[in-house]
Amino acid sequence: MTPDRVRELLEYDPPTGVFRWKIAPSRRVAVGQVAGSRTSDGYLRIGVDNRDYLLHRLAWLWMTGQWPNGEVDHRNGVRCDNRWHNLRDVTPVVNQQNRRACHSGNRCGLLGASWDEARQKFVAQISINKTRRWLGYHESAESAHQAYLAAKRAHHEGNTL
């Protein structure tokens, strides 16, 4: 995909992040129709010339005329929000630092907080430069989460929380 090809096929509206077809890619798609379908992990994608593309990467190509150097991060963490001001070209490490959801195995549901069965307290931890840092025991999941957020704001440059 080249910048010229993406601009030939699609119109991109930077304030809304919406792509519309300028040329119908098939009989099922009309000119002017919103382009993209949601993937199982929440991103928007389209198929062009027998290849799939993520729309946030195409937004970058459309706006800058080149592919991103790294990963395209959604500042607000919403994977289908492709507004131009919400996108940034970052390293994989910075992209991970902008995580907003906890791991699926986290039972308390808050970033940086987990339950220590032996001590009957919540634990706060954070990874900084691939090293796990201990942030202490807490009486509540919310308190552990707040300790995590303070450390995240201090040590993760890519964080937008």
What is the secondary structure topology, with strand pairs?
Layout: H1 3-9, E1 10-13, E2 18-21, E3 37-38, E4 44-48, E5 51-54, H2 55-64, E6 71-74, E7 87-90, H3 92-97, E8 113-116, E9 121-128, E10 131-138, H4 141-155
Antiparallel strand pairs: 1-2, 3-4, 4-5, 6-7, 8-9, 9-10
Helix pairs in contact: 1-2
What does this structure look like?
The chain is an alpha+beta fold. Helix content is 24%, strand content 29%. Helix 1 packs across helix 2. The longest helix is centred in the last third of the chain and has 15 residues, at 141-155. The chain starts with a helix and ends in a 6-residue tail after the last helix.
Provide keyphrases for this structure.
161 residues, alpha+beta, three-stranded antiparallel β-sheet, 10 strands
